[in-house]
Amino acid sequence: MDDVKPDTGASTDRTPQTPRDPMVVIEGVNKHFGDLHVLRDINLTVGKGEVVVVLGPSGSGKSTLCRAINRLETIESGAISIDGKELPEEGKPLAELRADVGMVFQSFNLFAHKTIRENVTLGPVKVRKKSKADADKQADVLLKRVGVEAQAEKYPAQLSGGQQQRVAIARSLAMGPKVMLFDEPTSALDPEMVNEVLDVMVELAREGMTMIVVTHEMGFARKAADRVVFMADGQIVEVGTPQDFFTNPRSERAKDFLGKIL
Ligand code: ADP
Ligand code: MG
């Protein structure tokens, strides 16, 4: 690309810098649901190790964008690539493709009839063709990392919502994803459990995971986001640093949105 501006660090221009080492490149993406133009010419590049928080009112297309990145939704035009490879990739099974893009939803989506450890080992064994022994070892490491190692033999219903969501994160990580998508991961949790999940996400960000996070948790955005993307009516309306966006939103839509949630 010729138009990449050097990052001098001194710029007051808030046009989004194109990250030098892109992990996710979304170009000219459009999608309709019937008459509803749910994604309107979406362009966004997320750099390796970057954390992008996506904000916006309900119905603005945030979940659809996440699902499109993970190929749970088709797109009508444009292109999405992960680590230089456009999806869907020729000859690569969709399951494997999706394994590169971890996704954690609002609802925990664990397999109810599998133990916590089995929830984490299933994908690596089936999709990544790991041996059961290796997958078990990895699961124990990951469950420890998210602080639920003591629950490994239990079933999802025996865990709190916060614990289940941390298992969902461990399960995604077990696939060795290149990027993690989080779609309102704490919205369904009791308030006292929100932080235990956000803490795991902050830690993941610190370790250098590339993350796209849809959340209304402004504390997380301030602490962990490199950039904030504000969506409304299927469009990206603003992109900026958390500092810029929260203190000086430019658009009326963003001012209105922040006025309601802050
Ligand atoms: P957000 O996550 O920002 O709340 P969504 O991406 O879930 O927004 O939805 C954007 C719009 O698309 C909403 O108006 C929603 O009702 C609509 N929508 C989402 N999924 C579908 C679907 N499968 N069929 C039809 N309309 C949908
Ligand atoms: Mg949503």
Automatic annotation (TrEMBL):
| SMART domains from the UniProt entry | AAA
Q: Where is the composition biased (Polar residues)?
A: 9-18
- Principal cellular location given in the protein's record: membrane
> What's a single GO MF annotation on this record?
ATP binding
Q: Where in the cell is it found?
A: Cell membrane
Disordered, as annotated region: 1-21
InterPro entries, per database record:
AAA+_ATPase (IPR003593), ABC_ATPase_HisP-typ (IPR030679), ABC_transporter-like_ATP-bd (IPR003439), ABC_transporter-like_CS (IPR017871), MetN_ABC_transporter-like (IPR050086), P-loop_NTPase (IPR027417)
| Membrane topology designation | Peripheral membrane protein
Where do the ABC transporter domain residues begin and end?
24-258
Query: Entry's Pfam families?
Result: ABC_tran
Its domain of life reads: Bacteria
Keywords from the named record: Amino-acid transport, ATP-binding, Cell membrane, Membrane, Nucleotide-binding, Transport
Q: Which family does the record assign?
A: Belongs to the ABC transporter superfamily.
UniProt-recorded name of the protein: Glutamate ABC transporter ATP-binding protein GluA
Identify the gene encoding this protein: gluA
